[in-house]
Amino acid sequence: MASPSPASPLVVREDSYVTLHYRISLASGEGAGSVFVDTFTGRPATLQLGIGQWAPGMEAALIGHGEGESFSFTLEPAQAYGERNPDLIQRVTLAMLREHAGDETFEPGDLVEFAAPNGGRYSGVFKEQGEDYALFDFNHPLAGSALKVDVSLLGVM
To answer: Are strands 17-26 and 35-38 parallel, antiparallel or unpaired?
Structure first.
């Protein structure tokens, strides 16, 4: 009679729910070394893989790792949030800004949320204001940067 094998850890799959601590740092570019987000100092996060909460390349790096593991990985921009797209830096009239953002007084670097015609919301980073326009960058804040991600998998479902 064979003895039961020790319980094997649960492994992350493409559709798993994971509870984890993670730290995302910029690994390249102007802010290299700066931390974008860090849950190690607070409450852990819970993610459902496969629904777009993280970039596909970031989720893929979790696949196959087991509950209880701690590890790090680095992703190039194309694997994370893509390269910066110059077409996503756009001028918005001040009238449109008032109508869709509810205000027109922002400081450079402010993240401004807009109402989309379909009822959705989207965000852009305020860059500068001219006489009758405001310049926004609608790229993801992490676009164009390689990322270093430190992970501690606390639970897998």
So the answer is: antiparallel
CB atoms within 10 A of CB 25: 20
Tokens of 21: 């601590």
Judge contact between 40 and 149, C-beta under 8 A. no
Please give the structure tokens belonging to residue 57.
């390349």
pTM of the model: 0.74
Q: How far apart are CA 41 and CA 21, in angstroms?
A: 9
1 vs 37, residue with greater confidence: 37
CB 51, CB 77: distance < 8 Å: no
**48 contact partners, CB below 8 Å, separation of at least 6:** 15, 16, 17
